[in-house]
């Protein structure tokens, strides 16, 4: 078993919203590894970062992604940093992976780049740019298709993802 579609991309790009729309259109289930982590750990991702640090969170995330890739056959959304792990990227090889992209101005509009995001606590615009400079090549490496989200509604993004993967609605 493996997911029909895996969504990757930065925080705030709309993976959850678009993922749910895709699942509805395809008549399959939706799953988000961030939700799995929160449910499994009994606390927020921000709390895990504060209490245990990023390396501990990334280890938890890696296990959650591996589990979801083997258990879920619908639409799966991964956390923004899941692709940082080389083993996770290797697991994504052969999957239908859609990288939802956006530029910094769109990120500001969507998330406000607020301090509730643990990796963007100080100088959010600069940190977002630096994160994306490091992550963009990894998203692109993992991706089967890249779908820009700038200036598009979630419905338009979902439609573009289906088109890019040549999938038909249920």
Automatic annotation (TrEMBL):
Binds 1 Mg(2+) ion per subunit. It catalyses: shikimate + ATP = 3-phosphoshikimate + ADP + H(+). The keyword Metal-binding applies. The keyword Kinase applies. Gene3D superfamilies: P-loop containing nucleotide triphosphate hydrolases. Its cofactor is Mg(2+). InterPro entries: P-loop_NTPase (IPR027417), Shikimate/glucono_kinase (IPR031322), Shikimate_kinase/TSH1 (IPR000623), Shikimate_kinase_CS (IPR023000). It is found in: Cytoplasm. Pathway: Metabolic intermediate biosynthesis; chorismate biosynthesis; chorismate from D-erythrose 4-phosphate and phosphoenolpyruvate: step 5/7. Its EC number is 2.7.1.71. ATP binds at residues 12-17, 117, 152. HAMAP family: Shikimate_kinase. Catalyzes the specific phosphorylation of the 3-hydroxyl group of shikimic acid using ATP as a cosubstrate. This is Shikimate kinase. It comes from Streptomyces griseoloalbus. The gene is aroK.
